[in-house]
């Protein structure tokens, strides 16, 4: 059975991805397309419904994002949100008036027609997150008002044309009953079946990988993180031993990470893994280097060289390698294809595990349609350990960007010990999964201490714990004092070489998450 698809046209709202997530949470597959997508591309997906997102523009702006008005007569239900409502009214011949000032924030909406299928099961008064600049003054023919807020129109419908629109944002957290409204649109109006489940995704993805790869050979770079592990697992399920995973110890992994990843993925899940311990090669290249970007470059280049060597070796053994698995996620796909809205101008400067083009391998990206939380759900459904799925993000250059200044084997060992204590204590306090990243940083600052009767002169460790949605901005986490106390006392007592612990209370911006 084909998946049913909802197409979301992105007019540049910072909430567009949230709309996609809300539909998927109802087990209905959705894709985000730029609002400028050709009508033929939209129709080719055979959507069961279309949602027009919000956006920062006014329909009167010279550069107001256009969408093919044919979308409104595709013959499938349409839901406009915020700018989407203005767009519908404007392009079907109604009148939109430019309000003197934009309004954002909490509002109460009164539902005027509770018989509208969009509002089924909702109370007559709704708490919503409102955002309006323009206001629809005159509705196009066939439309009627179905909801109103204190000072503006809040919802319209044209049941014959099967078009609905709301001025508020049902997709955001601040509209507590928003999920019900979206559910109404998907199930009552569009006739969704709600069968886009992890099991369904795994089954169809595995079948399509199997068909695509045939008898070819596939390689995959494992980082130990969630994305590469789940991507590898899906391919493994499809083609078993035709997949070889390459896992490189770059010498700046966490304590026991090299062994743990192999234990989790090879021993427990049966993945075919070539584990390459290149610690000496990386650390000798890093010797004497203090500049952060130079460290990153060395680690990136060295990784490519090791990976390439291994890929060539595997190619000789298997008679050729044709495919490379990458753990690209949906937000990256949208970033590179959608219109630039206010949310999309800030870009990550990090390219995780980039591989050179000269490898000329065809790509398999089994997670291209998924958000991070969906990747975890898929992984869970395949029986992958929480240890792998719940892991906090870890940077490609690893501990090298957490050891300020030169990276030496001694410093790596010290930081591995300190970091292990931070993570273990945070896990024991039950906080690990609630925190975006929590770790230790090694500062090349020596200070004086006393230990028993002895004077010490040793390094400083900083503790960093931050919460974040996507790593672009972050807030430092106020860890409980008793937890900080335990971490500090364990580090100073157990890690010979560190005699002082400090706590980083800087948010991003102006700080960054990593210290380098
Ligand atoms: P910053 O330090 O820039 O980090 O606030 C934001 C997020 O990116 C991760 N990070 C990296 N990831 N290669 C990576 O793969 C890198 O060079 C790198 N530097 C930072 C960081 O851990 C955080 O999640």
Structure commentary:
- The chain is built from 14 helices and 18 strands.
- Helix 5 (198-213) packs across helix 11 (372-381), helix 6 crosses helix 11 (372-381) and helix 8 (279-286) packs antiparallel against helix 9 (292-318).
- The radius of gyration is 26 Å and the shape is globular.
- The chain has three domains: 5-189, 3-Layer(aba) Sandwich (Rossmann fold); 198-389, HUPs (Rossmann fold, 3-Layer(aba) Sandwich), CATH 3.40.50.620; 402-503, GMP Synthetase, Chain A, domain 3 (2-Layer Sandwich).
- Helix content is 33%, strand content 25%.
Features:
516 residues, alpha/beta, Rossmann fold, GMP Synthetase, Chain A, domain 3, nine-stranded mixed beta sheet, 14 helices, 33% helix, binds xanthosine-5'-monophosphate
Question: CATH superfamily assignment of the largest domain?
Answer: HUPs
| Cofactors, ions, other ligands | xanthosine-5'-monophosphate
Number of strands: 18
Overall pLDDT, averaged? 93
CATH architecture of the largest domain: 3-Layer(aba) Sandwich
Q: What's the N-to-C terminus distance? A: 49 Å
Helix content: 25-40%
Main beta-sheet strand count, sense and barrel state: 9 strands, mixed
CATH class of the largest domain: Alpha Beta
Number of helix segments?
14
| Class by SSE composition | alpha/beta
Strand order of the largest sheet: 2-1-3-4-9-8-7-5-6
Which stretches of 5+ consecutive residues score pLDDT under 50?
A: 339-353
Over all CA atoms, what is the radius of gyration? 26 Å
Instruction: Indicate the proportion of strand residues.
Output: 15-25%
Tally of discrete structural domains = 3
